[in-house]
Design a protein that fits this description.
Length: 402
């Protein structure tokens, strides 16, 4: 019992630092674009380069976690990406920024399969939506804390020094993992003893079924909106809503704080009253997030626009707990790492495309309105896909009484 909560805390802490390091680049975007003479289209490619490296390592990272365990892989991952977080501070051109962020993405791409495997190892089927919601709350808390922290550092010390500080933080967390993450991550909890000797399943076989394909496609469509939200909203607030860097740092953190609440609520529902309808819960979250984005882009003033973004953030982050409970539930027991990594890889196709397309749309129209409509369209398609998954996967898992 103690081991599983320790493991959950440590992977939460690691994910928190990962999202500090993902959000700091968008917060410094104005300064970096000015110093490196980049337009929005070029900046979209810088943002997307991270997702290439990140996406390419999803299945290999999961395979390595399945084969060798999670502990060493996670320590290597955070050390690697922290080095390249710091090196972002020395970027002097478009080419160097692209190269550094690509390798940074490789480092962060190693972590996800190992982390979801740990959730599957230490938490049983009934607990996973709630455990995922706790773990993945770092996806919202990271930007919520990191947004004002990063903008303050950019204002006070410049964008280059900001990356050095965040890189050093990653090294500290690597030491914490080395000291406290259990060496044998399978010793703390064995939720599926009947399948302990089950052989690993080939990757191609995992995706023969319709449910696995719908799961991957749904995450791809969701990530179009999520990564557009994560990477471009700071620019939207500064360019379309004319907020200063300091004010955008404060107001820009509010949608992520709303996301923390949404993630906790949806994770709770996904482990209790909605546990048999998790794909439907994901679909409802996507639909509500789309409505929030539409309201934000049409709002008459900045405060109402931020309110719309908070509404969207609440439901966007609400997707993660129930979605990953579905994905882990679909994965063969001994191949959870590679399966969840492969689903995440499909998601990064959406993330990569989104960041480039949004940059091109914003550059072409000198506004983010068309880009936000593109995100809304992806969410609407996601609603349809997750609705279909619900029909293919009825009564996925039993209810957790809490």
């Amino acid at each position: 019992m103690k081991a599983k909560w320790l493991v959950l805390f440590l992977i939460w802490l690691m994910m928190l630092v990962a999202y500090f390091d993902r959000i700091n680049l968008p917060q410094a975007s104005g300064s970096i674009m000015h110093d490196l003479h980049l337009d929005k289209a070029q900046w979209g490619f810088v943002l997307a380069t991270f997702t290439i490296g990140y996406g390419l390592m999803q299945a290999p990272g999961g395979f390595l976690a399945d084969k060798f365990g999670s502990r060493r892989l996670l320590i290597v991952a955070i050390l690697g990406w922290s080095v390249f977080t710091a090196l972002t501070g020395i970027a002097g051109s478009l080419i160097s920024a692209l190269a550094i962020r690509f390798v940074f993405g490789i480092g962060e791409g190693l972590e996800n399969g190992a982390q979801f495997r740990l959730v599957g190892e230490y938490f049983n089927a009934k607990e996973r939506a709630f455990a995922n919601a706790i773990f993945l709350s770092a996806l919202a808390l990271g930007p919520a804390i990191g947004t004002p922290l990063a903008t303050w550092q950019v204002v006070q010390f410049g964008w280059r020094n900001m990356f050095f500080v965040f890189g050093a933080l990653g090294f500290l967390v690597a030491i914490v993992l080395a000291l406290w993450l259990p060496k044998d991550h399978r010793s703390g909890h064995a939720p599926d003893p009947a399948h302990a000797e089950e052989a690993a399943v080939p990757l191609a076989s995992m995706f023969k079924g319709t449910s696995a394909k719908l799961c991957a496609l749904g995450y791809l469509l969701f990530n179009v909106a999520f990564w557009g939200f994560l990477s471009w909203i700071p620019n939207y607030l500064r360019d379309d809503r004319h907020l200063s860097l300091a004010k955008s740092g404060v107001l820009g953190s509010l949608p992520y704080l709303a996301g923390v609440i949404g993630m906790a609520l949806a994770g709770y529902l996904g482990s209790t009253s909605m546990s048999r309808h998790r794909p439907l819960l994901v679909a409802v979250c996507c639909a509500c997030a789309a409505l929030g984005l539409l309201f934000a882009t049409s709002a008459p003033n900045v405060h109402l626009a931020v309110g719309g973004l908070c509404f969207a953030g609440f439901f966007l982050y609400g997707v993660f707990g129930p979605f990953w409970a579905v994905a882990i539930g679909l994965a063969p027991t001994q191949s959870r790492g590679v399966f969840t990594g492969s689903v995440n890889f499909c998601g990064q196709i959406g993330a990569f495309s989104s960041q480039i397309i949004i940059g091109l749309l914003a550059n072409r129209w000198h506004s983010f309105t068309q880009a936000i409509l593109f995100m809304v369209a992806a969410l609407v398609c996601g609603v349809i896909v997750m609705g279909l998954l619900q029909t293919k996967q009825p009564n996925i898992e039993p209810v957790l009484t809490v």
